[in-house]
Specification:
It comes from Methanococcus maripaludis (strain DSM 14266 / JCM 13030 / NBRC 101832 / S2 / LL). By secondary structure, the chain is mostly helical. The protein has one domain. It has nine helices and no strands. α5 (about 65-90) crosses α9. The model has no long low-confidence stretch (mean pLDDT about 90).
């Protein structure tokens, strides 16, 4: 459920803390692409149920997985995992409205940038090199993907402490075991 930037930073943290059970190298372009592309629907009108696999597993779409597909899927599955934790352990348990949720996401972005000093632009080259052809398995056109890449990046707001939002973020990070 977090924004694109939060997904990318959390993916980076999971990699650095070796929390992904990766026994092999990953193609970073497709890993980071997979970690944020499920939210392509926010920019293209594609239904969330198509990109978030509520009734299936994204790995089912790839039979003989290449190195690049495995990297993409590792990021994609992490995205879904992070979304599910947020939805079930944070948003629903705290009865957070969709409107307030969006504000918390923006706060989370600025908090992460302030805390970890990672700029959103540091991920651009990875995302731009991620392979749009993987989305054809979801019936998402390559042009839709390319257009999403052009519009997906945004400016993260300056950090301003909000104690209510910070408690929510701290509880999420605790669940994720990120200190």
């Amino acid at each position: 459920m977090p924004n694109l930037y939060s997904h990318l930073v959390l993916s980076k943290i999971f990699l650095e803390k070796e929390r992904l059970n990766v026994n092999e190298n990953l193609d970073m372009n497709n890993f980071y692409f997979g970690a944020c592309v499920p939210d392509i629907g926010y920019f293209s009108g594609i239904e969330r149920k198509i990109t978030h696999f509520y009734e299936s597993n994204p790995e089912d779409l790839f039979e003989n997985r290449t190195f690049f597909e495995k990297s993409f899927l590792k990021g994609y599955k992490l995205h879904i995992h992070l979304d599910n934790i947020w939805k079930y352990e944070i948003r629903l348990k705290n009865n957070i409205s969709i409107e307030k949720n969006a504000k918390i996401y923006n706060y989370f972005d600025s908090f992460l940038e302030n805390r970890f000093d990672v700029k959103i632009d540091s991920f651009k080259s990875y995302i731009f090199k991620g392979e749009c052809k993987f989305l054809k398995k979801l019936n998402i056109e390559e042009d839709t993907c390319k257009n999403w890449k052009k519009t997906a990046f945004y400016t993260v707001s300056d950090f301003q402490l909000n104690e209510k939002y910070q408690k929510i973020i701290d509880s999420y990070l605790k669940i994720l075991k990120i200190s």
